[in-house]
Design a protein that fits this description.
Layout lengths: L1 E3 L13 H15 L5 E3 L6 H9 L13 H5 L1
Parallel strand pairs: 1-2
């Protein structure tokens, strides 16, 4: 199993396919080392990242949100 986390592209380089290339390489490397499934977490509102992950074959498994003490008090 392989997990992808904290994949960021600086603003000046966005839209050049770098995230797709990096993720493709990492997934390929993990597959060669025996990984047979992959997972990741991405903010639901991060539409550019979600588009990359959808093109790579990822799909939503479940939603989540973070709980903080401030949210509980509101």
């Amino acid at each position: 199993m392989v997990g992808l986390y904290d994949i960021f592209t600086i603003e000046a380089e966005r839209g050049n396919g770098l995230s797709r290339q990096l993720c493709t390489h990492l997934l390929s490397l993990a597959g060669r080392q025996g990984a047979r499934c992959a997972y990741l977490q991405v903010d639901a509102g991060n539409l550019p990242a979600r588009a990359v992950y959808l093109r790579l074959g990822f799909e939503d498994a479940y939603g989540y949100h973070y709980r903080t003490p401030e949210a509980v008090l509101e």
